[in-house]
Amino acid sequence: MAPTIDPRAAPKLPVHDLPTPEPESPFRPRKPYRFSTLCATVDNPDMKDQYGSSSVPIYQTATFKGVSGEYDYTRSGNPTRSHLQHHIAKISSANHAFTVSSGMAALDIILRLLKPGDEVIAGDDLYGGTNRLLTYVRTHVGVTVHHVDTTNPESLHPYIHPTKTAMVLLESPTNPLLKIVDIATISRDVKERAPNAIIVVDNTMMSPYLQRPLEHGVDIVYDSATKYLSGHHDLMAGVVTCNADYIAKKLAFIINSVGNALTPMDSFFLLRGIKTLAVRMDRQQNSSQIVAEYLYGLGFKVNYPGLPDHPGREIHLRIADGNGAVLSFETGNKELSEKIVGSTRLWGISVSFGCVNSLINQGRAYHLFQRHASIDAATRAARGLPEDLIRLCVGIEDPHDLLDDLERALIEAGAIAFDMYQNKYVRVPENHLLRTAVESLQLDGGQEGQREWFVSAPGKIILFGEHAVVHGVTAIAAAVDLRCFGLATPRNDGKVSVHFQDLGNFSYEWDIESLPWDAVTPIPPGEAHPDELDQRLVGALNERVLSSIENIQNGARGATITFLYLYMILSRSQYKPGFNFTSRATLPVGAGLGSSASFSTCTATACLLVHRRISVPPPPAPTSTEHIHVSHQGRRAIPVSTADEVNRWAFVAEKILHGNPSGVDNSVAVYGGALAYTREGFGRKGGMEAIQGFKSLKFLLTNSKVPRDTKKLVAGVSEKKANEPELVGGILDAIQSISDEAKRALADPELSRDSLLTALSALMEENHKHLVTLGVSHPSLETIREKTASPHGLTTKLTGAGGGGCAVTLVPDDFKDEQLQDLINELIRENFQPYLTSVGGSGLGILSPYAEHRIRGAARGSGSQGQAGDGGDFAQVTPPETPTPGDASPQFVADASGDLEPLRTPFLNSSLTELPEWSAGLGRWLYV
Ligand SMILES: Nc1ncnc2c1ncn2[C@@H]1O[C@H](COP(=O)(O)OP(=O)(O)O)[C@@H](O)[C@H]1O
Ligand SMILES: C[C@@](O)(CCOP(=O)(O)O)CC(=O)O
């Protein structure tokens, strides 16, 4: 999308006296400088600096000595302010300029020209502050105010009185609806009918660069210089300009009497800001055009004069030189608008506009920030200020980043979704039911019945805070490049089945109707699961479903109950789809790397998808503006609301497997990256915070291969806490300080890499000792610590629940590859299982269900086909133990239709080393 505004094409070049180049020859007329040159050139021949300073000095003084000088008292005059006012007059085509303490102060000075009995005609889409002051003047001064639709010049005619009409207040474009007012025609009409009326224009939205109303017959122009003129939201100022000497005299008298002229310091800063007005505005309005066209292309109602069908565009083109950098759009739904505004990151939620940073706000934000607080709801409605209106004030950031951020917010809020037929994002219909219908139509191709869903989620390492996190302490954890995969394959024979290849190849199937439906209270879509598990359902599953399976091991029992619990509680009475759920992981199971959470996340996602309680918009397909979407290539294509829903249900699954989980593991499995996680309800502020700076760290994970049970270890620590509250309380506090310190160190840009690694090593050492005191270490873990410490000098701590499982070793940047290989070999000789892993990668992934995103034929084979996927950093030293391949247990019966499912066979057949690459090669993965 090319910017459509070329500032050089601006047709009008105002003629200014100062400064102008000398004529090139007596025959060639003087050529006026262009606007940006005028802006940057602060030059007043009548006020040459005694030292030739290039920047106007700040005369920070209240008084001036002597009796004959030009200045005596800063309220009445100050050299810094004089320079500024001269400069503003020059760029505004004005004979006179005044600067006061704010935009409202400027209007106040102007309104003081009125006297009792006067009549004012004003627009009906005015800034709330203007409205408030007008109301005050009306009630306290005895002035009559007529609000009319100034977009139609004729609507003023009935109110123009030859003698009584004293002032006409206009603004174009209006804020925030960007309505265009023909200030030239209105000025002419008013002058013809009421020659003494003063026509005033608020020019803040345009600035003198884009519009100089004095050139169109207006008498007074005012600007809130807090906006574009200064440009950085670092000062408040107002500007008043005019041509007529008699008006200027009155204004000067009022400003001096009131005493609100701009201070020397603010005058200096405003003068500095003005020098860059043109360049800022060029960039801001070019980006605005791009943003406006993007939103318009999505089908939103967009208010921006740069759009071809904007009402009054012809008039605007006549009176202005550009379209400005404020636009607004409507979503059709107030709550949706609130979500969009709340989901942006780069666009700041703030009042005002004209700053180099982009801002966003909306109906409710107007109330919150009192932007339009002085217009009550009824008046707002009457004046057509829609509650769902979102105003965008575009700054100088890279427009691609602005679009990226806006697009992500629109996706997250559910305002746009991918349309596979058009191969692009489109606006989602306002009606949610309709939206869901469209999604299911898109996903199912209009057919009833199921499709295959392939999902995956990462394991995690906890660097600091395991166990303590269960009791409300902050843990610091990150996703690892080892994942669990889950495949839901439809069945048409009224059965549901599971196949857990990593758990002794366990598989089983049930007639759906034979499940204990009498023991379940399904939770309707949109409702949350209660904090406590439904023990009636857990009991029924254990006693009536699992008891008939012979020799089922604990791991498979837990996984089966987890699956069936979610399957049943998420069902709706009429809709109990049959399918097989198969899981496999490149993660070692039960080793402290969060296999249970990644399994829980896959199970929850599969059940939610199959029950149609979540759906996925595919990522944008390649377009000519590819660079704009670069951050969405497969990533962040799953809306946060969907991720939140999965996370809630993955936590329920973790409760079934773990008893009392903290929620850190499933949060990492769903959101990926690295987080500081604090559980709610323990006095500290709960929640998650993304942690940067983790991804570049290198870790060696070593599986001790000693099996252990997280549920028992977590319960053991709780028991110790109950028996020895002081000891455990002290340890919890100490671990909290460790996590806090680690967080600080990771976020500290000043800290050198060496110091960071040293700090993290020391904190890991300390955290491990506390875990030893809590009784969750194991001799095998201590052996790994010794082997890595001597002679290699590396720091190792247990990670996860301990009691065996895994240890994590921080590998410094300068640690030699050969030495690392020696260490790895030594650990393998000791019968440990090392993995070199990168951290901080993607969270939940769903293979795009859209045919366009699948690679044909990829499912049939296994191994390295298609492009490498997200697991690119994966560097497994030795594959984790491959579960013994065996035949499916006798109970397992393939799909009754006899069809070979497209993905299931290759999924089961690919080796663990091939699995990441094979799955990545199937097509496009969508990530949280
Ligand atoms: N790939 C998988 N397939 C089925 N169940 C799994 C899988 N991975 C983990 N689980 C479930 O999670 C349990 C392991 O949980 P846990 O002891 O907490 O280990 P971890 O530390 O790896 O999370 C297993 O016994 C099983 O019930
Ligand atoms: C011990 C704990 O902090 C982490 C458990 O991790 P894992 O099950 O060992 O992967 C428990 C929890 O946070 O739920």
Automatic annotation (TrEMBL):
Reaction catalyzed: (R)-mevalonate + ATP = (R)-5-phosphomevalonate + ADP + H(+)
Keyword ATP-binding (UniProt): yes
One Pfam match: GHMP_kinases_N
Involved pathway(s): Isoprenoid biosynthesis; isopentenyl diphosphate biosynthesis via mevalonate pathway; isopentenyl diphosphate from (R)-mevalonate: step 1/3
Chief place where the protein resides: cytoplasm
Annotated GHMP kinase N-terminal domain residues: 573-608
Cofactor: pyridoxal 5'-phosphate
GO MF annotation: an example: metal ion binding
InterPro entries xref list: Cys/Met-Metab_PyrdxlP-dep_enz (IPR000277), Cys_b_lyase_euk (IPR006238), Cys_met_metab_PP (IPR054542), GHMP_kinase_C_dom (IPR013750), GHMP_kinase_C_sf (IPR036554), GHMP_kinase_N_dom (IPR006204), GHMP_knse_ATP-bd_CS (IPR006203), Mev_gal_kin (IPR006205)
Location of the protein in the cell: Cytoplasm
Domain of life assignment: Eukaryota
Domain GHMP kinase C-terminal: 757-822
GO cellular component: cytoplasm
BP GO annotations: 'de novo' L-methionine biosynthetic process; isopentenyl diphosphate biosynthetic process, mevalonate pathway; sterol biosynthetic process; transsulfuration
Annotated region (Disordered), positions in chain: 1-30, 858-894
This protein's UniProt keywords: Amino-acid biosynthesis, ATP-binding, Cytoplasm, Kinase, Lipid biosynthesis, Lipid metabolism, Lyase, Magnesium, Metal-binding, Methionine biosynthesis, Nucleotide-binding, Pyridoxal phosphate, Steroid biosynthesis, Steroid metabolism, Sterol biosynthesis, Sterol metabolism, Transferase
Amino acid composition bias (Gly residues), ranges on this chain: 863-872
EC numbers for this chain: 2.7.1.36, 4.4.1.13
Family: Belongs to the GHMP kinase family. Mevalonate kinase subfamily.
Protein name: Cysteine-S-conjugate beta-lyase
Organism, scientific name: Panaeolus cyanescens
Lineage of the species this protein comes from: Eukaryota, Fungi, Dikarya, Basidiomycota, Agaricomycotina
